[in-house]
Amino acid sequence: MAKGYWIGRIEVDDIDTYKEYVKANAAPFAEYGARFLVRGGTYEAVEGAARSRNVVIEFPSYKAALDCYHSAGYQAAKALRDPVSTGELVIVEGYDA
Q: Which CATH number fits domain 4-93: 3.30.70.100, 3.30.420.10, 3.40.120.10, 3.40.720.10?
């Protein structure tokens, strides 16, 4: 079964409120088997526009990645993030070799 991935590019306007989002998303991420592959860190934007925070999260399946995003727990966490950040998030199915 192919894994699922969240790829996020975020600009944070209020880091203290964003930290509350991080705390709130821990439970849904654990419930759906999320594993951070990238969470911030040094980067170089070699093509296109950049955001200051980049995240890649691996899930055991594409379905788990979608289910996590649409879960009540994650949507409650997202409500904390939305007013203090701008960004893009895509959910993509990984390659099943």
A: 3.30.70.100
